[in-house]
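Schema walk-through. Below, the input block comes first and the output block second. Nothing else is stored per chain. Lengths vary across the set, and this one has 58 residues.
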Amino acid sequence: MPEEPTEQKSAAAEAKAAIYKAIAKSAVELEQHPGSAPEGLKNLAEAYAWLTYPNNSH
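--- output ---
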């Protein structure tokens, strides 16, 4: 079972990459719909903070 931690790490890295991709896509969508920018930017910043610093309170 030594391969399990590597598989878990890989799955976690894939999930993190997918979320970063979704954040980038959302940022582009905010440019197209500026009326939702304040709330949208707050949400993107919070998502980025959770991913980048998961052990900090947000």
